[in-house]
Amino acid sequence: MLTFRPLALSSLATVITATSLTVTASESTHLETLQVTGQPLPDQELTTSDLDKNIRSVYRLDLDAIDHPATRIEDLAFTIPGAQEGVQDSGFSTSMIIRGFPVTRPDYNGLPDIQRLFVRDLHTVESIEILSGPDAIMRGISSPGGSIRYIGKLPEFERKTTVGAQLSSYQPFQEHNGSRLTLDTTGPLGEQVAYRLVAASQDIDLQPNDTAAQRNHVLGGLTWQYHDLGEIRLESEYQENRQPYLFGTVITSEGEPIYNHYFHSPDQESKRQYKRHAVDWQQRWKPSEKNKFKVSGRYAHSEVKRQDELIGFWSRLDDETLSGYYTDVADDYQQTSWQLQLDWKHDGALSHRGLILLDQHTESFTLDRTQSLWDSSVTDPPWGDWAFFIKTDNPNFQPLSNDGLQPINAKDAFSTSWQDKNENTTQGLAAAYQIGTHWGQRNVDWTVGLRYNEFEQTYARNSDQLPVVMKADGLSWQWGFRLDVTENLQFRLAQGLSRQVAANGRRDKEGSFLPPEENLLSEISLAYAQANQKAQITVYHIEKGKIAEADQSVSNEEISDLGFTPFKLTGSQTSMGLEGIYQYSNEAFYFSALASYLETTDDRRGFEGSQFPGVAKSTGSLTAGLHKTLNNGAKLRPWYSLRYVGKRYADTANEVEADAFLLHSLGLSLTKENSRISLVVNNLLDEEYVSYLSSTDTVYQGDRRRIWLSMETTF
pTM for the whole thing? Predict the structure, then answer.
């Protein structure tokens, strides 16, 4: 276990790239970070404050204002500047790419969300904040592109219950192949206590192959306002997920994707259970009119139980066949996070804000895995009892079943069984300070910050003794500047250097731990806002350096003598791009347009300056809709959405290219009093396209045309 050092440290100074998806947005009830842009901290009351009336400092998705059906954040990637869907763990984990880099750690209500093969159901979420680039450093998040911050549904003292149902089908008038039920109820339990219960259950067949994806999620919470300026919140949630591994499709040696086939054995089964318990405490006080303080503490513990029995593939993008393996996995995962934070605000001719943050995040898991390996020397039938092949141009899964594979024998040269034990601990100490002034409705401010992180990993295979295998520490810094050029025009500039202590931490051949990766982040933006429209353009540059890779100069005999695989520092990765957003809304019409362009370069050994695989240079979206009030008072809302994703390379050599795609969607909703019914057609023209793509994972076909019918009522 690591110990904290008495250092005066800090972090966070940034500029974030957008505005809310709605023209009128309210400030979050949670003071999660000190934003570089100088927006006022939330009031010291425990209610939501609409303090940021013009331009927000983080890109916020208010889910109630989004018409497009979504059950996970990847469904909303087209609404976020610079974001693309990723592919990770065959869809078991949240996977987003921001500014060319994968998001490494989403947060939920201020603490790390469940990090092990978890997809958060968006029904438990009130809003989503995207912290791009420098702003994510405050929380010790290592992704240079940014992070995702979920603002969960909290207990309220106004009684309200909402129930909903969704049905979906691939074609009109066919039997439905998707259903979803939701419940959200909240209200008081006396004068000081409020509750909230949220539940969602879905059973949806994924196209093609009608692969079943089942998920049940329940969340319950209690809030006790023991004082006008103090509260304690308890929260527990449970999720059961039966979505199987999807091994996607492939791209042939001619560069053509094979559509309408998931490489998925019908006999495989995956069972995963998630539990999370959290407590949140906040106490505010106001010693004078000009000085306000808040101290807060958070704690969360999560457990993941996983039992997988599956048939998978050692797939490559240009193979004519896929070689197979059988795996039986039992996974016991534990996660504990806590955080202490002190915030201070002083109002006057010069405004001052500051925070000090102390946090720790620990992950430990025991992984029991039994797996049959592929013997590359066996190329003809019957391929043994533990290996098989699938022809990619005409896949046939019927003969494949787990029953046809022999039990694993650990003595078999081509099969193995093992147990991994692992514990990772990251802890940090951070502080940030902001000074600003204002004249009229115009503001100028400057923010500086530092953060110190320590990381340690212990690991062993088939042993209860866990030696330290990775260790690192690092100091990150940021600064940011904001100026209201006019009452409607705002200029922002930010820069930061984050050190990813969890990324390296490995030893070189001399036995010394390598220094952490470094990300140098810079961005500049200009934003314009009026009562009914907003626009923002952002330019950014990211350089990721000190990346470690296995030292190829060390022989297998030397590795055996060392007892570990040595690493060395290699080249760098660079991402630079331009993001733009425009939004307009009035009583009768709304319009939103997003566009992003980025250039990526990988200068690591063996990549020779290639572009990042799976990352499109250009993306964009357009959404337009009408507001119409009928004679009976009902509100009609038709809308249209267009999404574009440019060409992407499917390999690190940049030789195989995936085509760009363009998707059209339509929707219509009717709201009367407290009830709403909506009809959505996603992928109107039923386009075949590659949605998720990377060089290390398989390729995923995007969802074909799907028709959603949704009903919801509140009482």
Answer: 0.86
